[in-house]
Amino acid sequence: MNIFTDDSGNINRDKVLQVLDEKLKIAWPGVDELCVSKISGGYSNLLLKIEDIKFGRKGVLRIYGNHITNEKTKLKNILVAQALHEQNLGPKMFFHLPCGYFEEFLDGHSLHMNDLHKSEITSKLGYQMGKIHALKIDIDKSKSMWDDIGNWIDLIEDELKEALKLLSVDEMSKQLGLELIDKCVIPKDENEILIKVKPELAPKNENVPEFINIKMLRDELSFIKQSISKCQSEIVFCHNDCHEGNMLFDDEKRTLLPIDFEYASYNHRAFDFSQTLNHFAWEYGAKNKLGYRIFMDKYPNQEQLVLFFTNYLKAFDNTKATVSELIKESEIFKPLPHFVWTVWGITKHFENKKCAELSHNSASFDRLSMYYIYKNELIKKLDDL
Predict the structure, then answer these.
(1) Within this chain, do residues 275 and 251 fall inside the same structural domain, yes or no?
(2) Which of 8, 35, 80, 239 is the most exposed place for a label (fewest CB within 10 A)?
(3) How far apart are CA 237 and CA 129, in angstroms?
(4) Cross-strand bridge partners of residue 57
(5) What digits encode the pLDDT tens for the residues 194-249?
(6) Where do the H-state alpha helices sit in 134-231?
(7) Could you tell me the residue range of the domain that residue 256 belongs to?
(8) Residue 370: CATH number of its domain
(9) Closest to 41 measured CA to CA, from 93, 112, 114, 121
């Protein structure tokens, strides 16, 4: 992944301490013996727990993943982290580095999908999302999440083109771990690569295509942008990736804190709603070979949705929207997070194509299936607006 771990994921302790060095001595006067361990989670970033044995101090070194390379994005992450801490919505940042930043370690544990269905968690989650959406953070608002998705699609196309220069389609299929088909298009000296859609857990549905290609992904992105323009969902500061694994719950204090804001940006609030509510039915960290499970019947019922949005409005009162109107917004956006994480998963697969255990193929195809299943519902709801 980077200079801090080897191919097996083992931590290079010397490299970690070398990077922290003088700044840590200022943040933690008298620091001596340190313990370095990896924190589970962190799908994109590497998270390391740093413990000062002598004084009992704990911190987290958050090391940027490959998706964070430019200085604007790094600055955004710093501004977001500082703003969250000021509003008691995040840990204190001790200092930042070119490769990431070092922050306070907060006690707590991540949640399980079943926890989201508990009324205490549902209400706290709605309230915390309201507080996040009420934030005013001075970051670039001109670039949207959908620009990033377009860039990710470009990356997939570039990877396929580069591989095609060196390999046959059959060789590409074996190396990339994808079932690819070469379909000639005009002009004849160009190639259109079709990727076979192979969902593992999503229910079979006639709306799910057998193959996808770059053009289809771009067409769906255009459809999504057009749909969003009709919905009129308010633009607010959004987490964009709030699920059970990105929540920290303190059993003693009974507090819930969304964490890992690496994909945060100004976005339509309904995307945040749907991203989180979809995870009432999508289990991360499942103890099966895929690491996730899908439960079509566990999407929040009306009572749960009312509880979530009633508490949301307690924290975010700068809106005329009613609970029922927010529920409708969330339902319209329901397929969109699945499309986002489909494209994200395929790009991650290309990044990790040498590491089979890091492949996101099955989840990407299941996400894509869920997108097409819910897309029909979206079309009907848009017709009713």
Answers:
(1) yes
(2) 8
(3) 10
(4) 52
(5) 999 999 999 999 999 999 999 999 999 999 999 999 988 999 999 999 999 999 99
(6) 145-166, 169-176, 214-231
(7) 113-146+211-383
(8) 3.90.1200.10
(9) 112
Q: At what angle do helices 119-133 and 269-278 cross, to 10 degrees?
A: 160
Q: Answer whether residue 6 is part of any domain.
A: no
Cβ contacts of 246 within 8 Å, gap of 6 or more: 41, 110, 239, 258, 259, 260
Dist. CA 304–CA 300, nearest whole Å: 6
Q: Is 317 helix (H, G, I), strand (E, B) or coil?
A: coil
Q: Domain check: are 95 and 239 in the same one?
A: no
- Which 3 state secondary structure label does DSSP give 265? strand
Q: What is the pTM of this model?
A: 0.91
Q: Are 354 and 277 in a shared domain?
A: yes
3-state secondary structure of 161: helix
- Both tokens of residue 294? 């899908």
Query: Between the CA of residue 320 and those of 137, 234, 237, 313, 325, what are the distances in Å?
Result: 22, 11, 18, 10, 10
